[in-house]
Design a protein that fits this description.
Elements: E1 6-11, H1 16-27, E2 31-36, H2 39-53, E3 57-61, H3 69-80, E4 83-89, H4 104-132, E5 135-140, H5 156-174, E6 179-184, E7 189-190, H6 193-196, H7 200-204, E8 212-213, H8 214-226, E9 231-232, H9 236-247, H10 250-260
Parallel strand pairs: 1-2, 1-4, 2-3, 4-5, 5-6, 6-9, 7-8
Helix pairs in contact: 1-2, 1-8, 3-4, 4-5
Length: 267
């Protein structure tokens, strides 16, 4: 068991990509702070990670839709004297309905989890990274940041585009001080995200070759983050698709997207 107080903090760590990122970092010797809403699930996973990888683990259950949650996470780490050198902003969900059917409260909760909390946590932990002249930040974004707009989940693509630009600005401002930020942009990934977000039917209609394994995504994301890469589009399949999105006229790619992933456009 490691005795150092150097930690990686992973939000949304109870399942899917976040859990696999936590395992990947632990496999590389990082102690882990796991945060998500489910206390019981976090405790069980912390025990599993600690036993399997012989690292220290700690849990802090919270809901990032709560405005005070980022400060609570930061204060917890300060109280425990954890030196967080890797910050993984992974927590997320999606509103399954069209924009006119969702409440303003739903939209605000969504923006807080996927946007505001990322900014808050980064702001809170950045100063300590600057003091030590070293830090790695991962922002789990999405290929949706590049893709044509969807007829459901109206804010999902826009907020991911915003997160990519935010990550880019962090690199511009702090790279020379030893801090890097990596925007990780996976495509369709097999997790419980779609079921939890109410869009599993749409996910089921996506061709199998477009759907990737969460462990594979996590390994590539962690590799890119620790190497200080600015952007990571995991897997060759999705690298090609993002390249095509950038060079094809929007209307052509929209037609292709409807054929490959019809669930993004009708419900």
């Amino acid at each position: 068991m490691k005795t150092t107080n150097t930690f990686a903090l992973v939000t949304g760590a109870s399942s899917g990509i976040g859990l696999e990122i936590a395992r990947s970092l632990a496999r590389r010797g990082y102690n882990i702070v796991l945060t998500a809403r489910s206390n019981d699930k976090l405790k069980a996973l912390a025990k599993e990670i600690s036993n399997n990888f012989k690292v220290k683990t700690s849990v802090f259950p919270c809901d990032l839709s709560d405005k005070i949650a980022p400060n609570e996470i930061f204060n917890f780490c300060k109280l425990k004297k954890y030196n967080v050198t890797v910050l993984v902003n992974n927590a997320g969900f999606a509103n399954p309905d069209k924009f006119h059917r969702t409440s303003m409260e739903d939209e605000e909760r969504f923006i807080r989890v996927l946007g505001t909390s990322v900014i808050a946590l980064t702001k809170l932990f950045l100063n300590e990274m600057l003091d030590k002249k070293h830090g790695r930040i991962m922002i789990v974004s999405s290929v949706a940041a590049y893709a044509p707009p969807s007829e459901i989940q109206s804010l999902y693509g826009p907020i991911k585009t915003f997160m990519n630009r935010f990550s880019e600005s962090l690199n511009r401002s702090y790279n020379y001080k030893g801090i890097t930020s990596t925007a990780v942009c996976p495509g369709y990934t097999i997790t419980n995200f779609h079921t939890a977000s109410g869009v599993q039917d749409e996910m089921d209609r996506v061709p199998k070759f477009l759907k990737k394994n969460a462990k594979t995504i996590a390994e590539l994301a962690v590799d890119a983050t620790l190497k200080g890469k600015k952007v990571c589009v995991p897997t060759f399949t999705w690298k090609i698709i993002v390249f095509l999105i950038k060079i094809l006229p929007n209307f052509i790619f929209s037609i292709a997207s409807k054929a490959m992933a019809p669930g993004r456009y009708d419900k």
